[in-house]
Design goal:
The chain has one domain: monomeric porin ompg (Porin). About 10% of the residues lie in helices and about 55% in strands. The chain has four helices and 16 strands. A hairpin with a 5-residue loop joins strand 3 and strand 4. Helix 2 runs antiparallel to helix 3. It is globular and about 60 Å long. It starts with a helix and ends in a 7-residue tail after the last strand.
């Protein structure tokens, strides 16, 4: 029997809600297909897109917990200030886009995939300041959820970034895997993540990160969010030493209602700061010159679908995300751009 005949769901034209009645059959089908795509995040995304857009039949059953096939996408532009320590300072125009898709599996399980891309205008030219140029990230989440209480699950992904246009050694690829959980208390959402990071590149080794997020829904479509992250990463495997990364951010979402030309427009503004302590190792005699940081101010559009409001999407839809893991690295322990072990401590 074809996949489209085995998948059934209800389409509510009022709020465009999609619900899956046969979770066990769906899980079996997805499991069989995922074996062929297990090494590809894009393959997983393609599977979800196929399931959502396929030719399916209507039914009257409803997910016990009301989990919904849903998604969210952000698109933003902004300004990024880069403090490259002893390599100098820079200001660049930046842009980013992401998409998230959540698919219920049975009564209380769900699978979500994310794709994030970000770059600044220094990605297209030569610049000696040590700082991020572009990053790409794909991730997946498997979780159990009760919309009235909370969520717990596992997540993982792959990412790539570049911090220097002229030297391929500044390119790093990495993988991460960890656990996450959410707690819902009235109009508040508390979100925690922790993961191990495995890096492949000339500059940095492995490590971990821990992240905490708080969301306050002032209204069903108005949200205020704060977050903080700590990471510890090793320098590359043939060097000793490590470095710490601190990242923090804030975001405000709302809806500009009933515009004359475009109707309701979902808007957001956000800020993200990143500080890498000792990122340049012993490159410069003054230790403060070996620290790097960047500050990004963003403004853009944030659309959700499959749920009637942003708060409903947070509790029953595509609520999960991942930090920009690629922005945590790379750093190196070197002198004048040449990677060397750190100087001995007297």
């Amino acid at each position: 029997m074809g996949i489209y005949r085995q998948l059934t769901m209800m389409v509510h034209t009022g709020d465009h809600t999609l619900r899956w009645p046969y979770g066990r059959q769906v899980s079996q089908i997805i499991g069989a297909i995922m074996k062929k795509f297990s090494k590809s995040v894009l393959g997983s995304t393609a599977i979800l897109a196929l399931l959502v857009t396929g030719n399916v039949h209507a039914a009257d059953d409803e997910n016990e917990f009301g989990l919904r096939v849903s998604g969210a996408t952000d698109s933003w532009n902004g300004v990024q200030y880069i403090d490259g320590g002893g390599t100098g300072d820079d200001t660049a125009l930046a842009s980013g886009h992401n998409a998230r898709l959540s698919l219920p599996l049975g009564h209380n399980l769900s699978l979500q995939t994310d794709v994030d891309v970000e770059w600044n205008d220094r990605a297209f030219g030569n610049n000696a300041v040590s700082g991020q140029r572009w990053s790409f990230q794909g991730s997946g989440h498997l979780s159990w959820r009760d919309p009235s209480q909370g969520l717990f699950g596992v997540f993982g992904g792959v990412a790539a970034s570049n911090h220097n246009d002229t030297d391929p050694a500044y390119r790093t690829n990495l993988r991460f895997v960890g656990g996450e959980g959410q707690l819902y208390v009235d109009d508040l959402t508390f979100y925690a993540q922790g993961a191990f990071v495995d890096q492949e590149g000339e500059l940095t080794g492995d490590g971990y990160f821990a992240r905490g997020v708080g969301r306050w829904f002032v209204g069903v479509d108005t949200r205020l969010q704060f977050e903080g992250l700590y990471s510890n990463l090793d320098f590359q495997s043939n060097q000793s030493g490590d470095y710490d990364v601190y990242q923090w951010g804030a975001r405000f979402d709302t809806v500009w209602e009933d515009t004359s030309m475009f109707g309701d427009i979902p808007l957001f503004v956000a800020y993200r700061g990143t500080y890498r302590d000792g990122c340049l190792g012993n490159e410069f005699p003054d230790s403060s010159d070996n620290d790097t940081s960047d500050h990004t101010v963003m403004a853009g559009f944030s659309y959700t679908w499959g749920t009637p409001s942003r708060m409903d999407n947070d509790r029953r839809g595509a609520t999960l995300d991942t930090p920009n893991v690629a922005s945590l690295a790379p750093c190196y322990n070197g002198t004048n751009g040449i990677i060397v072990p750190p100087a001995p401590v007297p």
